[in-house]
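Lab meeting, action items carried over

1. Structure of the two-component assembly. Owner: GW. Status: complete.
Input record:
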Amino acid sequence: MSPRDDGPTRRRFLTTTGAAGVAVTLAGCGGGTTGDGETTAGTTDAATEADAPSSTDETETSSGGDSRYGGTFTYGMSTQPESVGNVTQATSVYGSLALSLCYDYPVNTNHADEPVPWLYSDWTLEGADGDWATAYFDLREGATFGDGSAVTVEDVVFTYDYVNEHELSAFADAVANVRSGSIAAADGDWDLTAEVKPVLAWPVNTIGAAPILPKAVWEGTDPQRFDPVAEGQAFGTGPGEVTRWDSATAIRVEVVNDWYRETLNRLDWVEADPLRVAGGPFADAFNFRVYGSESAMTNALLDGEVDTHFGSVAPARRGDVLERDGLSLLDGYDSGFGYFAFNLERTPTDDTCFRQALNFMWDERFWVESLNDDAVIDGDYPQSPGYPAGRPETYFDDADLLTDPSSELYAYRRREEGSPAPDVEAVRTFLERGAVATGEGGTYAGVDYPGTLFDVTTAQSEARHDYSFGPVESDLLAEKSSTEVELRVNGETIPERRDGDPLTVLITPPTEQPRQANGVSNWLSNLRAVGVPIETEVLSFNALEDRVFYEQSFDVSAAGWGDTSPYGGTNYFLFHSDWHTEGTESYDYNFTGYGVGDVGYDEELAEAYGTLDTREAAERFAKSMERVYLDAPYRVYNYSKVRWPLNTAEWTGAVGDIVDPAYASWPLEANNLHRRG
Amino acid sequence: MTRISARYLVRRLLVSYLTLLVVMTVLFLLVRSMPGTVVTSMVTPEMSPQQVARLEAEWGVDGPTWRTYLEFMVNYQTFDFGYSPTYRRPVAEVLLSRLPRTLILFGAAFLVGYVVGPLVGIYLGWWRGTVRDRAVFGAGLLAYSMPVFWIAWLFVWLFDHELGWLPSAHMLTPFPAEAYGPEFSWTVWTVIADVLRHVALPLFSLAFVGWAGAMLVMRPQMNNVVGEDYVLLARAKGLPERTVMLKHAARNALIPVVTQAVVALAFLLDGSVIVENVFSWPGLGQVVVGAVFDRDYPVMQAAFFLLALLVIVLRLLADVAYTYLDPRISFGETP
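Predicted assembly:
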């Protein structure tokens, strides 16, 4: 089970990346649903070429007589959203599920994750060489809000002024990447102009970074106290309007924007997009039911009270779902990954050699097969396979996604038949020699490694510290391991260097995450066999978050669910030194300290993030993935497989094998779903 | 008639007030010792230090601790609990909106438990040693041994999923037009009927265990008074058996049950957390759990304050109730 169900973490990562709030789809083809109780899997091909979409398409169609239209789709969730349906205050995924159907972003992305015209019909950027560039863009003619009123230039200007005035963290990119007060009606051929930062996928992350708010509704309001649902004004440029918001029980969104269905969602690029069904959303309304627990939510699915629910079905309940007529499980990828983080500002975790040695001892087969029954995928790069554009394998014809040997440096068990024991001696030798798997081909800790795809090499070419082994002195190793030797770092044991304390791995309570606790226990057992005195420290999630993300007071931490984005752009936030601060006052995306010292990839990450072309940027980030993999500020240990349940007896059109169908791709799914027959 | 002197009452009130102040201080320190503040989840790395400072000032976490403490002590005594960052409403409003829902469920369960339980205990204690007594006592002991959440899930499975007789989630049908037809609209009677349908299963789950606790206390107390002289006298006077049992014996055996009942009332909130989650009952328990995970410190703090206040007040009321139940008991000088 993915450790992603912690509310605060999710809240945090909703605001981390520019693409987090955008309904993006995977480059590739989906398998769809079968409706016969089977799971489906589509292909996961690399990004395909797409023609530049026309920016002035108008197609006429009518929904009358089309039997796909109609019905109410019901979605279950087990966590309460915010108590007010206010999009400017929505930082949790649960509220966003409903609000994303009402408050649409003005720039969309196609199946290749390229920014495409949506509410903005066209745009251009001038002066992209400097820190700030000038964007010019047009508002699509005929655009309407959910109440039928026209979307005007004034609304766009108002929105950005409002966002900046109130410093709305829900639209952090809009605040950071658009110069305050610069959005204005333009002279000449364009409707609007703005000063923006020339960043990756700039239309999405600058002028498209906030949904357009109707000025007539929001002007003069206090965003922290305004309740648009209570005022009967909970609509934006999306297809829906929130007509009911009882965060403890139920939320209802009714589809009200005909222009959205009949014009916007029938643009040429939508008609041509292999993942989209033009003309949606087809349901008349979406009901969201809130339950007190995951069990109650899954029971509701089995009872037919809901057509789907948030997240995957728990492994123990999958059999129940598949046995139930009319229910199917749709395959997908989690948008994040499970990982351990190392503190690069402490000894010896500041040494690439040591971190790689720790990585060698993680038993990936035990984790994937024994503990998780193949419900997860062995992890490697900090990039979900659901977003292959940001992964190195995508750019090499003979490299297989997830299984290429270049991503298997640390996978000592998967590369051999049978059940090889951890090669303790090989890892000891690796440390004693001060070796570093630099990215060149070779044998490291007994593992044959062909080298990286992009010919990337590590920042360190040899160990920073001197490692040796001597008699066991730590009580921890004496009590919990049968090892006869203990590691010395520069002549001292680790406890001698740390006032008697061993290394610690921070984890959340085993009762909350028993599999993770079990996997970590196995890992530490292997490490102690090597002679590393290391133990776990259990903290509540909130306490762990503070220790790791704010105080950086940790050696190794199970940091839970990490977010990724289509182009790999998350790496810029996670691993660039700009996002690391000293002290305890601020939350750090880059809490490991990667890039602060001499181990980092700052220049390349900044260059990638400043690349405007998404394909070029994605390739640069893919290269950074290999560097991060070798430098190992993280040990990515899995990607969760999503098994999204769906009432396929009544509904069809859902897309499989994409990222997060229940959340990140939910707006796409909501637009596609339609009744059978 | 109560037998508490004014002087004693004043003294008790003063002690209760001081107790409340101590509890509030401990609560303040406990919450402050937790990691982060109310603005922690609002701050993102993109924010400038000035933005963070403005946010902290807005939520009152920027001042010195002593000032925050004084404001807390004054505000809470006027039931000003501040503003919830999660709910975006005054905390008092959030808690008050949820309290009736918790009271509906747990108040009803309490009433059922503390009417049925003592009644059964009276009869069992009166007929102690009989086959009937042993059978019902055994059943009660078994019921009391079962965790409420386990019973709850069992009933959910049986009455909702297998039999489909009763709903197991929510307090009201979330989308009545779908369930009852597009012409349906809520009236007072349809609301009552729908709530009764939804409360039946959680109420039954709570009462299934709740009655047994009261019975287990009442039964031995009843047995203690059965052999008392005044009971013998009442019988000798020719009073009906039922009158002797209820009016003379049971009344004296009630005192420990009253104590238990008063304390149980105070801990309604404590018990509501699990049951409200099992039955998706939108009450106070759900709010408190959510507040802990979401670092909604104002809500968390206020909920715990109310619980402490409830315990203190009900303890005082229990003492008053004692004097009514037992004429031998008086506090202070007899008026």
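2. GW to write a short summary for the group page. Key points so far: Chain A touches chain B through 60 residues (CB under 8 Å). DSSP finds 21 helices and 26 strands in chain A.
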